[in-house]
Design a protein that fits this description.
Layout: E1 2-11, E2 19-28, H1 29-45, H2 58-69, E3 78-84, H3 89-104, E4 109-116, H4 120-132, E5 137-143, H5 150-167, H6 171-182, E6 185-187
Parallel strand pairs: 1-4, 3-6, 4-5
Antiparallel strand pairs: 1-2, 2-3
């Protein structure tokens, strides 16, 4: 049985329903440590470091995303969904996780879901909803910022990247289009 790790972040709650973005990074146990090491090298080389997207300047954002788009081992691992005109954040988050796990899971798998800043009461609710939908989820837990790793920071960056790409016509949008075409980024909101 394959073990999958699912890293989730969300953005857009501040728009009062104008839009909502969910980013989900799914990796197997076999690729996880190697991928974390690669992402940490990219964070150092681009001088993005461990900063959240919102705390990173534009130049570092572009360099980080350019490196992500060129990291072929990320193919089919980064997923997102962009929802408009909704305040139903939890159902859309759960639905996006389900879709990402379905796309990633081949055969029998079990998943551990890690969601940025999710309180324990919500973790139980998300876990129950995923179980009700038939997802083989072993554990759901929130990740506090101080214990985050490179994969949860990647999910945070993907949310910011998707948001910036939808709001502005700039180099991040060009990289967004390239990432979709190369299979690095997968749109699950369609």
């Amino acid at each position: 049985m394959t073990k999958l790790y699912c890293y989730v972040d969300e953005s857009g709650q501040d728009t009062q329903g104008e839009f909502f973005i969910v980013a989900v990074v799914v990796v197997g146990t076999d690729a996880r440590d190697e991928l974390i090491a690669s992402l940490e090298v990219i964070e150092r080389e681009t001088t993005k470091g461990r900063l959240k997207w919102s705390d990173t300047n534009r130049t570092r954002r572009v360099e980080y995303i350019r490196s992500i788009v060129n990291l072929q081992r990320l193919a089919h691992k980064i997923n997102f969904a962009y929802y408009a005109d909704t305040l139903d954040y939890l159902p859309f988050t759960v639905s996006t996780i389900e879709k990402a796990l379905t796309e990633a899971g081949e055969g029998d798998f079990t998943a551990i879901v890690l969601i940025d800043a999710l309180p324990p009461s919500q973790a139980r609710r998300v876990g129950n909803l995923l179980h009700q939908s038939g997802m083989p989820v072993k554990k759901v837990r929130g990740v506090r910022r101080e214990e985050s790793d490179a994969l949860i920071r990647l999910a945070d960056a993907v949310c910011g990247w998707v948001r910036d790409s939808h709001e502005q016509k700039n180099e991040l949008r060009v990289l967004f289009t390239q990432a979709i075409r190369k299979g690095i980024l997968r749109d699950l909101g369609k």
